[in-house]
Design brief:
Helices cover 43% and strands 19% of the residues. It has helices at 46-53, 65-70, 95-107, 113-132, 139-147, 162-166, 170-180, 196-207, 257-268, 274-282, 314-330, 335-352, 356-369, 374-383, 387-397, and strands spanning 5-8, 14-19, 25-32, 74-79, 84-91, 186-192, 230-236, 242-248, 286-293, 301-308, 403-410. A hairpin with a 4-residue loop joins strand 4 and strand 5. The longest helix is centred in the first third of the chain and has 20 residues, at 113-132. The strands form two sheets. It has a six-stranded mixed sheet, sandwiched between helices. The protein has a five-stranded mixed sheet with strand order 7-11-8-10-9, with helices on both faces. It folds into two domains: 5-207, Cytochrome Bc1 Complex, Chain A, domain 1 (2-Layer Sandwich); 230-410, Metalloenzyme, LuxS/M16 peptidase-like (Cytochrome Bc1 Complex, Chain A, domain 1), CATH 3.30.830. The termini are far apart. Helix 1 packs across helix 4 and helix 3 (95-107) runs parallel beside helix 8. The chain is globular, with a radius of gyration of 23 Å. It has 15 helices and eleven strands. The mean pLDDT is 96. By secondary structure, it is of the alpha+beta class.
């Protein structure tokens, strides 16, 4: 159980404070409800660009890292399809430094042509390195395109093409900042060895005077139901063949999401999981195999990916996966197998809550998703899933007309 106090400032900023006296540290996390899904189709990669731009200097702070390091802290950030998160962890007595730094770039980020030019080059280089020059690096470009036609999940977080970021104008970038990086579109979490009353006062001190931005709406085009299987085979500079099998999943808050998440554990969590044990160890169809769910706020994907073993064709490898999925659809999973997975999940959650940074980030995510209280309720939801729930969802999910296949073949 992670206890916290919530206060909403007059400008709309949601502030959550969690006291943890067992640590000498404090974590400050600010999450903005903007990700790649909020971009225009001809101007993609902007949310990821801002992950970099937010460190390029603000009105009173030309170098974000320097004062934080002098306060004994460190920081980082990441971008997803749905949101962007910035965080600092530092000695608890110095956490006001992080509040000052975050408030200054929320209020007055310095978006100069020079700063933009520098970060454009960094992001384009990252695109080239991770997507175009790395084996299988463009997989998400193809998977997104195969599985989505209307929703902006049809491009990955880094963007559709490097030209979108490279050609971004200063006016476009400033407009994106003004619209999304506002107090009424953010959640601020402070966790660690702090006093709640003091933390709330400091949040008001540093963020209370920042004007609210425009009213935020997330009117995204819904993705129509998938009615047929899609497939793409790529001849690429990769060391060995690879297969990706994807399925459309419910949205993050849909009750069936929890079953989908547990199904990925049944398939590929640990050496006793079905795909690992049967296809990698026993039948030696794969040299590597994994399954995971994206967990997007809107309907996302379950992905099974693997590297076929030597002398096993991609077609034979995919056939073996489908055989395992059909078994899941025919037989109700054994209650013992499910309980083992549920308890492993529960212990993972408990272990993650030993970190103040994890608690700050998770509180922000759940508050943005729905309400932070859900963070304390979800373990119970997972534990209440039954074998018949998994059987029903497996039959609904693992259908050929709800899937897409991506195959890499070495040139």
């Amino acid at each position: 159980m992670v206890n916290f106090t919530r206060k909403i400032l007059s400008n709309g900023l949601r502030v959550l404070v969690h006291e943890d006296k067992s640590t000498p540290l404090a974590a400050v996390n600010i999450t903005y409800y903007v990700g790649s899904r909020n971009e225009q189709s001809d101007k993609t990669g902007f949310a990821h660009l801002f992950e970099h731009l937010m460190f390029a200097g603000s009105k009173n702070v030309s170098d974000f890292d320097d004062p934080l390091q002098r306060a004994g802290g460190e920081n980082n950030a990441y971008t997803t399809n749905d949101y962007t998160s910035f965080y600092e962890i530092l000695p608890a007595e110095n956490y006001e430094t992080a509040l000052w730094l975050e408030s200054d770039r929320m209020m007055a980020l310095s978006i100069s042509k020079r700063a933009l030019n520098v970060q454009q080059k960094v992001v384009v280089e990252e695109f080239m390195e991770t997507c175009l020059n790395e084996p299988y690096g463009d997989a998400w470009h193809h998977l997104s395109e195969l599985m989505y036609r209307e929703h902006p999940y049809r491009w990955p977080v880094i963007g559709l093409a490097p030209e979108h970021v490279a050609n971004a104008s200063i006016d476009d970038v400033r407009a994106f900042y003004k619209n999304w990086y506002t107090p009424n579109n953010a959640v601020l979490c402070i966790a660690g060895n702090v006093r709640t009353d003091e933390a709330l006062q400091l949040a008001e001190k540093w963020f209370g005077a920042i004007p609210a931005g425009p009213a935020i709406t997330h009117n995204l085009p819904p993705e129509p139901p998938q009615t047929e299987h899609h497939q793409k085979t790529l001849l690429a500079k990769v060391p060995v063949p690879a297969v990706f099998l994807t399925f459309r999943t419910p949205a993050r808050l849909h009750p069936d999401f929890y079953c989908v998440d547990l199904l990925t554990d049944v398939l590929a969590q640990g050496p006793s999981s079905r795909l690992y044990r049967r296809l990698l160890k026993e039948r030696q169809v794969f040299s590597q195999i994994d399954a995971y769910v994206t967990g997007n706020i809107d309907p996302g994907l379950l992905v099974i990916e693997g590297r076929p073993a030597e002398n096993v064709s991609p077609e034979a490898a995919l056939k073996a996966i489908w055989e395992e999925l059909e078994l899941l659809k025919k037989e109700v999973i054994d209650d013992r197998e499910l309980k083992k997975i549920q308890h492993r999940f529960e212990s993972t959650v408990v272990f993650s809550e030993t970190s103040v940074l994890n608690k700050a980030q998770n509180l922000a995510f759940y508050e943005l998703l729905d309400r932070a209280e859900l963070m304390n309720e979800e373990v119970g939801i997972y534990l209440n899933v039954t074998p018949h729930d998994l059987h029903r969802v497996a039959n609904s999910l693992f259908r050929e007309d709800n899937s897409a296949t991506l195959i890499y073949v070495p040139t």
